[in-house]
Amino acid sequence: QVQLVESGGGLAQPGGSLRLSCAASGRTFSRYVMGWFRQAPGKEREFVSTISSSGGLTYYADSVKGRFTISRDNAKNTVSLQMNNLKPEDTAVYYCAAGGPLGLHLTINNYDYWGQGTQVTVSS
User: H-helix or E-strand containing 72?
Assistant: First the structure.
């Protein structure tokens, strides 16, 4: 069982930055592939980024590639999402998720545990 708690959301101006963090409970955090998803009002939840259990592999949605960076600290049981050059279309609730140990996961169905989400609003 893994419990995930996101933090770091808020209001940012276009072109600004925010850093999201996700704290995980449990001693097996390093076994999980971690991911970030987001859901805008009236839209389906979509993939943002994923990182392998060791942190050596990452993958991004085209919409955030070059602007967002995912990282993890297995000693601290945390995964982060650095978001730069934010755009209004990045406005959404952002969710942290944990899935099985192998490879990278790009789809919702590959994740077993989810946080409650943190709101990110990009507006001038």
Answer: strand 68-73
Residue type, 13: Q
DSSP state of 107: S
- Nearest to 90, CA basis, from 10, 27, 4: 10
The 3-state DSSP class for residue 109 equals: helix
**C-alpha–C-alpha distance, residues 84 and 122, integer Å:** 11
What is the Cα–Cα distance from 57 to 45, expressed in whole angstroms? 23
At 51-109, the pLDDT tens digits run 999 999 999 999 999 999 999 999 999 999 999 999 999 999 999 999 988 888 889 99
Query: What gap in Å lies between CA 88 and CA 10, rounded to an integer?
Result: 13
